[in-house]
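ingest -> fold -> write
write: protein_1
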Amino acid sequence: MALTMQRASTARVAGRRIAAPKVARVSLSRGKFVVQAAKKSVGDLGKAELEGKRVFVRADLNVPLDKEQNITDDTRIRAAVPTLKYLLDNGAKVLLTSHLGRPKSGPEDKFRLTPVAPRLGELLGKPVKKLNDCVGEEVEKAVADAKNGELLLLENVRFYKEEEK
């Protein structure tokens, strides 16, 4: 037996009243109530949960570039802005990662996320610090030094063979 609810404070299952704050699903199994908590999205988190926290975000920033490395369509960057802005406005230290293109064997300049940083900074209205890698000592130091409300754009994760597929 199962009962699906939305933001109810109590529920009745098998004639018994139970407390169920913000519960997604309550079920009766072998005479016991099983409560599954509702999933949270970024918007469910407030300043108290985000301020000073490191938040790792993988976004689709795989934007088309022309031969001079200029972004020809920034739709994917604009799609990420509301979430990133919310995190930054609530004091999170945002580590943003993505892929760009399909590099064959390690770093290639034409697949760097360098063109994304200035456009993202324009859209967010604040500077974006672009790192030259997505792992390692440089990244660890930058993360340790990051201030609340700062965004670090990590380099293309597909420069590592573990991310290719």
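write: protein_2
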Amino acid sequence: MPRLDAESASRSPDHIVRTPVLRYFRPVKEASTTSNISGDLGRQYVNCLRSSMEQIRQRVTDELFILAMFERLYTSQMTIICTWLTERMDRALNAHQVNCLSTIIKKSFAEFELQGIPEEVLNSKNYQTIQNRMRLEEATAAVSETTFLSGLRVSMPKFSMLEKAKKMALS
């Protein structure tokens, strides 16, 4: 067991995280936008999934077993996401959730398709439900963002004019 001395105590927490799986879940230090954070999180999830599937393919030789296991994995993943979205049907998702889920859904579909999962399994009822909800959420987010940005454009000149008026009154 390593000793905890002054030098190791001053190191950042990144030195503690050494396992490949935990590396994906360490806190993000700097990010410019929410979409970058959530897109990265979604990509990290899919990369972890891809890595796991590659390891399974390397170690297991029975192709029928692998396909059956991947079908169950995909089906259970879509069921969990669909259930989670259904429970939140009355609430809109925030931008982070939309970006993260959208990345996970699209890339997971492509990954399992590459693994040879049949089309009827991939396009299940749960997947169609998720796709419909994600389209709705993405459209809502786009409209909300446009409305928010147009509101900023309208209010910015008023704010500048107010500042100028205050400066003129004080002089």
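write: annotation protein_2
The CA atoms of residues 46 and 52 lie 10 Å apart.
The first helix runs from residue 6 to 10.
pipeline exit 0
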